Amino acid sequence: MNYEPNGFGALYQNVKLLYHYKSPYQKIEVLEHQWFGKALVLDDVIQFSDRFVDVYSKALTDRVIENATKLIDNNTKVNLLIIGAGDGRIANYIKNSNL
After folding, report:
1. CA–CA separation, 4 vs 15, rounded Å?
2. Which residues pair with 46 in a beta bridge?
3. 46: DSSP letter
4. I need a surface site. Which of 3, 10, 54, 90 has the fewest CB within 10 A?
5. 27 pairs with which residues across the strands?
6. Is 38 helix (H, G, I), strand (E, B) or coil?
7. Do strands 45-49 and 16-22 pair parallel, antiparallel, or not at all (unpaired)?
8. What is the pLDDT of residue 2?
9. Global pTM?
């Protein structure tokens, strides 16, 4: 299947459309792409994908981890509130940081 949002057909060749929904606010799609893996697409723009999820998680959490480690010593228990991030990857990344 070729999927062509707004003329970007070359990028979206051989894509499998896994989910499509048009809400009153935006078009929501989940695609399976040969290079990106599974990707969330909102209004024809890739928001994130399997290929870049680690880069995305690292970018969102590295500064938090860096600043938190400056404020606490190694024996202090830390409680963090994560709002959003429903896939759990941000929580898992922070948990594995030894914070």
Report:
1. 10
2. 41
3. E
4. 10
5. 22
6. strand
7. unpaired
8. 47
9. 0.58
